[in-house]
Automatic annotation (TrEMBL):
This is DNA mismatch repair protein MutL. Residues 424-566 form the MutL C-terminal dimerisation domain. It comes from the Bacteria. GO terms for molecular function: endonuclease activity. PANTHER family: DNA MISMATCH REPAIR PROTEIN MLH, PMS, MUTL, DNA MISMATCH REPAIR PROTEIN MLH1. This protein is involved in the repair of mismatches in DNA. It is required for dam-dependent methyl-directed DNA mismatch repair. May act as a 'molecular matchmaker', a protein that promotes the formation of a stable complex between two or more DNA-binding proteins in an ATP-dependent manner without itself being part of a final effector complex.
Amino acid sequence: MPDIINLLPDYLANQIAAGEVVQRPASVVKELLENAIDAKATSVQLIVKEAGKQLIQVVDNGIGMSETDARMCFERHATSKIRSTEDLFRIRTMGFRGEAMASIGAVAQVEMKTKPHGADTGTKLIVEGSAVVTQEPVVTPSGTSICVKNLFYNVPARRNFLKTNAVEMRHILDEFQRVALAYPEIAFSLYHNDVEVFNLPSAKLSQRIIGIFGSNYKEQMALCDEETPFLSVRGYIGKPEFARKTRGEQFFFVNNRFIKSGYLNHAVMTAFEGLLPKESYPFYVLFIDIEPDKIDINVHPTKTEIKFDDEKTVYAIVHSAVRKSLGTHNIAPSLDFEGDVNFAPLQPIRIQNNEDAFEQERTTFASGGFSAPSSAPKRMSSAGWEQLYEPIRNQPTGEERISSSVSTSFLDDAFADSPATSNKTLQVHQKYLLVQVKSGIMVIDQHAAQERILYEKYVASLQKKAVISQALLFPQTIDLSPTDAALVKELKAEFLELGFQFEDFGGNTIILNAIPADVQAANEKELLEELVEQYKNNMATLKLDRRENLARAMAKRLASRLQTRMSELEMNSLVDKLFACQVPNYTPAGQKTLVIMELNQLHELFQKN
């Protein structure tokens, strides 16, 4: 039998490896900026064209490279950071695997000029598809300049998977901000298509935050500083009153390396518990400094996920540091240990006996009310309630399975005895509607029903491109984060089709002039932030086109604002609109909008044992 296993040629092996390291232009930006930092640069310039598809250039004033090092840096697993196995557990530099330059050189046309300080001439190197085209001496300033042109020029399939320039630029902005925040002592600048986007001089962390996110952050920052023998936590958190509806400005750095950690984010959010408005997110930039041998950063190619030896201790210290900061700045309520509890005023409590409770409820039902006794004994087990919903437990939960389920038996019954306006609709806790139908009682989730109605309405508006806007009496000036501003501008056409009208005011600021006619004119800034946050959440979990995503985001966020007491006319109108929908029994995400409680199920609730 002939041999069939062969070694891959270097150029092909490098292209495969590049798939892990270089996923999009932002990946190149991250690697080159980190290399500049490791080179001890004090000034770094990033220049991109066409969102990095045409050009990514990083110019630094770091230590530069010799002729040999310039050639060696494009070899796989060539690094100046690792000499022994023990070095892997003492890593404090940004790059250490020796894969970045080899991977970039495999999928782009790269030109590098570098010169060590004190040298007379530098080295110019041109690499295309892992092959060195030229290497020659050159007159160049001390430091390194790397140009990455025509990314994925030799892998067209990968290039076709890149998103629009606006999307790719948002990712570049994300990477730039993370590096700039981690190293405020280094001056950074960013140019896109010859337009200056950022010019950040060397500064303190607080000044760097203001330089990136805007001067309005000056008032909302609270210092966070905690030192323990195990680790230290420093940085800034946002005051609760400045919390936003988007969670973009939340950053964790471990040993100056940006990380993503839902676990640590939970520690911060629980520290803010009771201080934030509903569905609001605080700003924070927190740095954790810990011994390198207590963590493992080599668990993901992008090095944004790490493992801690003792996660529980890290969680507790971060939670305590944030809580302490809130208390120090008189943000969180504190206990008064000097007060005498013996003289605390007691509120009178009226204890109602069972006979009083029964008489109250008998009177309530006799007068035509429909409320449950708040002090009634709870004798029914949870198992009984679970059996109540057994007939409808196996309904589908996804949007792709909704259309086939519209004709289920309980829905057919609801349509057969469609709720007539003569049947009184009752609202329970401003969350549910009770409607009598032929087979029993229909319970409608008010929020879910409104979401389904609004979703189909906005889908129709986006398809017909016929929408009515209402002009704001006072146009709203809205400051957004750089990434959110880029997203809003990218979706300008879709926002216009929904009824939003705004203009670019420069930088990350827009002026909102009009909103959809059926949206209440109040808290427009908050509404826009909510839509952006929901849109980003949908992007992270679902594969939707822009219009579908925006319609879902609008429906979900506006429905959450409509949980109010309704008149009988409004309740009947909601029921009628729900059953006029194409898919009335589920929200776009697959949540039920209604359930039917059969008469026999109601009878069983009151059967004697």
